[in-house]
Design a protein that fits this description.
Layout lengths: L1 H24 L4 H4 L4 E3 L2 E3 L1 E17 L2 E5 L4 E5 L7 E2 L4 E5 L2 H36 L5 H30 L5 E3 L4 E6 L6 E2 L4 E7 L3 E8 H4 L7 E6 L4 E10 L9 E8 L10 E17 L4 E3 L2 E7 L5 E5 L1 E5 L3 E6 L6 E3 L11 E3 L3 E2 L1
Length: 363
């Protein structure tokens, strides 16, 4: 009976002791008891800015002047002294052809000229004799006319033979095929010993001074582009960003990819080589969005935001979603609106709920 009463008395005392010890060891929350602080900080108004909208595609550097070297005559190839990738200058010999057939033709036409010249000489002598006899009325006028006609035919035959000889000699200029431009050899379609024929390429070269950047744009964006629009092209291999403009828009799209070919002229083609990879950025429109200074952004809890100052000059931290970023400013996609005021240089001492005093507000 007494033992039961003792247990009833001990348990309430034990529980009270635990509560007292717990209250003694609990530390006060400094944030909860912290009074708002007043700071002197610069404040700026958020404004909307008109920002360009860009569309980026990939592409390659190409030569706008790719030349396929062919022969004007049919002849065997004696030699091709250039190789793929070799830099060449205007006037360099690219192909040498066998001249045996041309040399034979020249000799044949030269013999024809000599024969025609001898025939003309004989016809001229005959004409002079007949003219003398005609004056003496020893031959009829009809005979004189025939001799004069024969002299004229011999003269025309000589002219034709001389023209054929000049044509045969002119073929010698096609024995050595020279480069019409400065450039680089990109392909050899023939080898030494092959037969070169008119219309079939022997080698292909690309002119270095006519480099373009080629890319493809989908049909959803093609109507937003205009010839001569300015663009920027980033060349990965060079680590450079080049300025340029749209020089050509091919109006016929690919029926499979639904894309259109765009060619871009670059302001600087130094160190560029055909085939280099790059990215081109087209401006396809504009958008209006808030833009804030980078110095206004602070990080809290791993997320970035700003301190917004209300009408009572009290600061409230607000997380933001950012879009494009520049070295000194950022585009805000959500979290703050035009007309609100933010702290542009908050520092580490500013906390949510503090007051901000400033001499003026920068719009």
């Amino acid at each position: 009976m007494w033992q039961g009463k003792r247990n009833v008395i001990v348990w309430p005392c034990f529980i009270s002791l635990i509560l007292i010890l717990s209250s003694c060891t609990q530390e006060p929350d400094p944030v909860a008891n912290k009074e708002p602080t007043v700071h002197m900080l610069p404040v700026s108004g958020v404004t909307n800015k008109e920002l360009p909208i860009y569309y980026t595609t990939i592409g390659s550097v190409i030569s706008d002047n790719r030349i396929q070297i062919t022969s004007r005559i049919a002849a065997y190839i004696n030699g091709i002294p250039v190789r793929e990738g070799q830099q060449i200058s205007k006037g360099d010999v690219l192909v040498s052809l066998d001249s045996s057939d041309i040399d034979g033709a020249i000799q044949q036409e030269a013999a024809a000229v000599n024969k025609s010249r001898s025939a003309l000489k004989d016809a001229q002598i005959d004409l002079e004799r007949y003219e003398a006899l005609f004056k003496e009325k020893s031959v009829p006028e009809n005979a004189l006319r025939k001799v004069r006609l024969q002299r004229d035919i011999s003269q025309e035959t000589l002219h034709a033979a001389q023209a054929a000889l000049e044509t045969a000699k002119s073929q010698l200029q096609y024995i050595l095929i020279k480069s019409p431009v400065d450039g680089v050899v990109v392909e050899r379609q023939k080898r030494t010993g092959d037969l070169a024929t008119p219309g079939f390429p022997i080698i292909s070269i690309e002119a270095e001074k006519a480099l373009l950047f080629k890319s493809f744009v989908p049909e959803s964006q093609i109507q937003k582009l205009v010839q001569n629009d300015k663009v920027t092209v980033a060349i990965d291999a060079l680590g450079k960003i080049l300025d340029g403009h749209i020089s050509r828009i091919v109006p016929s799209g690919d029926s499979v990819t639904r894309s259109y070919e765009i060619k871009i002229s670059l302001n600087d083609t130094a160190d560029l080589l055909p085939g280099m990879f790059g990215r081109v950025q087209f401006q396809v429109g504009t958008e209006t969005s808030p833009v804030i200074a980078r110095t206004a952004v602070v990080e809290r809890g791993g997320l970035r935001g700003v301190f917004v100052v209300d009408a009572e000059q009290q600061a409230h931290f607000r997380w933001l979603r950012f879009g494009r970023e520049w070295p000194d400013r950022l585009q805000v996609q959500a979290g703050v609106s035009s007309g609100e005021y933010i702290v542009t240089h908050s520092g580490a001492l500013l906390h949510d709920g503090d007051f901000v005093k400033t001499g003026n507000r920068n719009e």
